[in-house]
Design a protein that fits this description.
alpha+beta, 313 residues
Length: 313
């Protein structure tokens, strides 16, 4: 215990020192102090939100072109535009949401488990429920998101970031630190750049001929053609942006977080913008968190009334 306590104090001291040092450097017009990817991630983890239960009141706005999206003629109208929702999450267990587009009247309820998704429409004249495996979510949205990704997204954690197995190059991008995933030779052949030459604002798209792209794709695993970039605030180490370029499926995900709030359990973004883009789909999601409660267990109720018809979406 004594060793653990000393390690925690040392890490906190490093985090504070890094932030103060960078504040002085920026005030003098100097760039951020160079840090390794491990140091950046350690600073982030020290300030990150620590939660087992999370409850939120949110405003959500959706926009985009149809393609692989949920069929709006089978869903409450509010699901395709804007709505308010109460969201409750238990780590690694459940995501629950109650959707109320206007006048505080609940029109839909959502329950997501690690392997399944349930939707209950409560609109008079269009009441139904659906039960689907969670992997159907990828087909609906065009984004390869699993249960952990969804919880990370809603709690403000960088998406698909595993410090134990991922390897990154660290860069300085103005007032932010940038981590770029180390990628393999097939990616270099497709985008025309290696990971060391990628600039912070570069949009990574296939630069090869159709024939070369087909050949490289047929001889690569999907993860071989995925490029990750993560931006962290140079003073607070808040995870302000993620960008994923999936060259295998020709799609991208961009996530921007802002308005970080201090809580006793760590820092949490109160505004979130997500953009999914693929050849078939463009979907933009904006989430504003009006109120959040951390580590207060909440009731999870999801009951399907007798006689409610089931639909397959």
């Amino acid at each position: 215990m004594k060793t653990l306590w000393l390690w925690t104090l040392a890490l906190a001291a490093v985090t504070l020192a890094s932030g103060c040092s960078n504040e002085r450097r920026l005030a003098k017009g100097k760039p951020l102090r160079q840090l390794s990817s491990d140091a950046i991630l350690e600073n982030y983890e020290e300030a990150a939100l620590r939660w087992d239960w999370l409850s939120m009141k949110v405003d959500v706005s959706l926009s985009g072109q149809t393609g692989l999206l949920l069929p709006t003629d089978s869903l409450p109208d509010a699901m395709s535009q804007s709505f308010k929702a109460t969201v409750r999450m238990a780590r690694d267990s459940v995501i629950w949401a109650s959707i109320t587009p206007a006048l505080g009247i609940e029109v839909a309820r959502l329950l997501i488990r690690p392997d399944s998704l349930f939707l209950l429409s409560k609109i008079p004249g269009n009441a139904f429920y659906t039960a689907e495996p969670l992997d159907r979510l990828q087909a609906w949205t065009g984004a390869d998101l699993d249960f952990r990704d969804l919880q990370d997204l809603l709690s403000g954690r960088p998406l698909s970031l595993d410090p134990k197995s991922d390897r990154f190059l660290s860069r300085i991008d103005g007032r932010q630190y940038l981590l770029v995933s180390r990628y393999k030779r097939p990616v270099r052949r497709l985008v025309g750049l290696d990971d060391k030459a990628v600039g912070p604002t570069d949009t990574l798209r296939v630069q090869a001929t159709d024939r070369r792209y087909t050949r490289v794709r047929n001889h690569s695993e999907e993860d071989d053609l995925l490029i990750q970039r993560h931006w962290f605030n140079g003073l607070t180490f808040d995870p302000e942006k993620d960008v994923f370029d999936d060259l295998y499926e020709q799609r991208s995900i961009q996530i921007a977080r802002s308005q970080f709030d201090d809580t006793e359990e760590g820092r949490m973004p109160m505004a979130l913008e997500v953009r999914f883009q693929s050849p078939q789909t463009t979907l933009e999601v904006e989430v504003g968190i009006q109120r959040a409660r951390v580590n207060n267990p909440a009731e999870i109720l999801f009951e399907i009334p007798d006689g409610t018809p089931r639909k397959t979406l």
